[in-house]
Amino acid sequence: MARLLIVSNRLPISVRVDRGALSLTRSSGGLAAAMRGPHERHCAVWIGWPGSVASLSPEQRQDADAALAGMRAVPVHLGAAEQHRFYDGFSNGVLWPLFHYLLDKVNLDAELDWEAYQRVNEHFADVVAAQYTPGDAIWVHDYQLLLLPALLRRRLPGARIGFFLHVPFPSAEVFRILPWREQIVRGLLGADLIGFHTAGFRRNFAASAAHVLGVEPGEAAIEHDGRAVALGVHPISIDAAEIERLAGHPGVREEAARIRAEARGRKIVLGIDRLDYTKGIPRRLLAIERFLEREPELRDHVRFLQLAVPTRESAGAYADFRRLVHEMVGRINGKYGTTYATPIHYMHRSLPFEQVVALYLAADVMLVTPLRDGMNLVAKEYAAARIDDDGALILSEFAGASSELAEAISVNPYDIGSVAAAVKQAIAMPLAEQRLRMTALRRRVATHDVHTWAQTFLDDLDRAAPAAPAVAPPSRRGMPESVVESVRRAPQRVWILDYDGTLVPFAPVPDLAAPDEELLALLRALSERDRVHVVSGRRRADIERWLGALPLHLHAEHGFWSRPKASDDWVALEPDAAAWKGEVRKILEDVTRRTPGTFIEEKTVTLAWHYRTAEPELASQHVRELCARLEARIPMDALELLAGAKVIEVRPRGVHKGRVVPLILDDAPARAAVIAIGDDRTDEDIFAALPPSAC
After folding, report:
1. Do residue 29 and residue 87 come from a single domain?
2. Rg (CA), the chain
3. What is each CA distance from 23 to 20, 67, 263, in whole angstroms?
4. Which of 370, 496, 525, 645 is least enclosed by beta carbons within 10 angstroms?
5. Which GO terms describe its molecular function (predicted)?
């Protein structure tokens, strides 16, 4: 039976030794809560780190692994030093601040941490591959495992692999400062589906992939390595029904009433956050200070409650941050407190979720002002808990939730004046307006809950990569071993090879794509026994200059020109018909003037517009414009547009690489193995013209 393999940095179960006895504790929040449903409904296996087991004896560790197996959990054991470099060093010292735009906190000289990050991702890949059976779906989670999809693709080429990013993906300009940007983009593109919270995060990733790898910046999918990688928007949510149930529980409502009674009629403005620098607590405190300064008549009528949940307590930077927040709270309370009232009630601890829901019920205003956040479920939890349809939500425009929760009061968390004004607006909001806004918020959160989120992602993964029977594993040569063996045993071989992107990497300028000595030696050795045809879109002068001294059959300009192995003469397949070029050239020149980094290449019977070195987003926009203009102005019955790798080419109909295939096959020895290798759409014409027996 096909299963779901859930893979995350941490298991939702922690392993500890308590007074000599083994203890396994389930986590209650975050990803554990989001994935509880899929774990139960899909007979899923959860793979992740169970916490440090250094204090466990070998027998206890064996018992722990057996107990985890009974809970359908598989541990990935890590050494303490490696886990520290992987998690604290690279994941949270490099990726976390970078993805949240806090560039002054990014450690860009973390080579040893990067090496640990790679090793841990490899270790995860080994454990997942050992658990995998054909037909299983693999769902990888979050920024700690960005390399894992590609590592799994290498080990399990036929697997269905989904990846979901729970944090923001930054703009291409920010992401590109990362020294390891290419490895990370390639790692993610090993998935069949990459999920993001918002369309903006998806656009950022597509733009980053375009800049870093030169792929076309598709909105819903990216073509990479012969595969289409789907990009999805899947905003995570909460178990709204469970929160509503808790909000109606008598004990929770009694606790909420007690909190309100302690406020003595004051309006309660609530903040609940992990004590993390991305959550914007210092600027929120400055906004509260600004409110107290501006509104002296309201000081005795408002109580600010801030719950700061401890996180990453071992990190020195977080200890400094905690000290800063505590000092700010003390300073503001000292400035505006009285003998009978303290404006900010600050709690630095974790609370049971029932008490959190009681706080949601008690609060008149929810203040959610992260500097940057992937989603922020606190905002959604507050809406779900407001079963009386009252209350006001103030939400940072830089939280992913802001794209969904339009009825909240939107603020820029960096603008403390506007946040202070929003607090005043919220506490003065008429009940009718509160109910109008909150009813819409609660309806949306209830409709798009965490169960819908998970099922929608899995449905999209099935569409992106339908379950398929296992295929032959690839050899080190990149093709199934059975095909390699068939080619090896053939008495004679005919090779049909593309040039750019196949024999040589793409170059920013065509003249820089000359072959190196290693490639020339390889082609010379190959041609001693086999027939080798190079079929290129290049001008014949380029192909002649680079490969003319080798004993090869050469075909230039998509097969319009051919030069047999034993000849120095090029032969045209048909007379030149270039009367159309003048009008097309004018259009290409106009677009080139407006698109820096592009240029026109003229061949015998074609015109090509290259945009490899142009800014990807602008080039993508102008490609659409260019194609529309050309299709409106040129005779499409006689000419056609060809979209290649960062190039648009106009050519007469019938001029394509596939035209040379019949000539090659007519001259091929009987029983010869025919192998064609290409990399882009122009090579599809070759493949279409080949017999079914070709490779």
Report:
1. yes
2. 31
3. 9, 10, 40
4. 525
5. alpha,alpha-trehalose-phosphate synthase (UDP-forming) activity; glucosylglycerol-phosphate synthase activity; trehalose-phosphatase activity
CA-to-CA distance for 561 and 605, rounded, in angstroms? 10
**Residues with Cβ < 8 Å from 242, sequence gap 6 or more?**
none
Residue 543 sits in the same domain as residue 661:
yes
Using one digit for the tens of pLDDT, what is the confidence trace for 373-397? 999 999 999 999 999 999 999 999 9
Residue 424 has which token pair? 């005043």
Inside any domain, residue 224: yes
d(CA 164, CA 193): 8
Euclidean distance between CA atoms 497 and 679, whole angstroms:
10
The token duo for 234 is 């899947």
Q: Going by C-beta distance under 8 Å and a sequence separation of 6 or more, which residues neighbour residue 345?
A: 303, 304, 305, 306
- 423 and 364 in one domain? yes
The 10s digit of each residue's pLDDT in 26-79 is: 876 678 778 887 888 778 999 999 988 777 788 888 888 898 999 999 999 999
- CATH code for the domain in which residue 674 is found: 3.40.50.1000
- Cα separation of 554 and 542, whole Å? 11
pTM of the model: 0.81
One domain for residues 296 and 256 = yes
* Residue that finishes a domain, picked among 168, 200, 233: 233
Give the pair of three-digit tokens for residue 342: 């303290």
Cβ atoms of 166 and 375 within 8 Å: the answer is: yes
Task: Take residue 238 and report the two structure tokens written for it.
Answer: 């909460």
- Close Cβ partners of 464 (under 8 Å, ≥ 6 residues apart): 160, 162, 192, 193, 228, 229, 230
Among 618, 676, 684, 675, which Cα is nearest to 645's? 684
The burial of 213, by beta-carbon neighbours within 10 Å (0-12 exposed, 13-18 middle, 19 or more buried), is given as middle
Cα 464 to Cα 278: distance, rounded to the nearest angstrom = 33
The three-class DSSP label of residue 610 is strand
Q: Is residue 458 part of a domain?
A: no
For residue 26, give the nearest of 12, 16, 37 by alpha carbon. Answer: 12
Residue 289 has phi, psi (to 5 degrees) of -60, -40
Domain membership flag for residue 454: no
Q: Are residues 593 and 567 located together in one domain of the fold?
A: no
pLDDT at 10: 93
Number of H helices, E strands in the chain: 25, 26
C-alpha closest to that of 526 among 506, 545, 552: 552
Tokens of 125: 């890949």
Pick the last residue of a domain from 399, 431, 448: 448
List the CATH number of the domain containing 120.
Answer: 3.40.50.2000
How many domains does the chain fold into?
4
In whole angstroms, what is the distance from residue 449 CA to residue 235 CA?
10
In a shared domain, residues 600 and 549: no
Predicted confidence band of residue 214 (pLDDT cuts 50, 70, 90): confident
Residues 200 and 345 in one domain: no
Which segments within 584-646 are labelled E, that is strand? 599-602, 607-610, 639-644
Contact 572, 623 (CB under 8 A): no
**Mean pLDDT lowest among 38-42, 556-560, 623-627:** 38-42
Q: How far is CA 80 from the centre of its chain?
A: 28
Residue 574, pLDDT > 70, answer no
Cβ atoms of 199 and 233 within 8 Å: the answer is yes
The residue count of the chain comes to: 695
- Tell me the average pLDDT across 497-511: 86
Confidence class for position 476, pLDDT limits 50, 70, 90: very low
Which residue matches tokens 């149930």? 245
What is the average per-residue pLDDT within 542-568?
A: 92
Residues of the domain holding 266: 241-448
Q: pLDDT averaged over the chain? A: 91
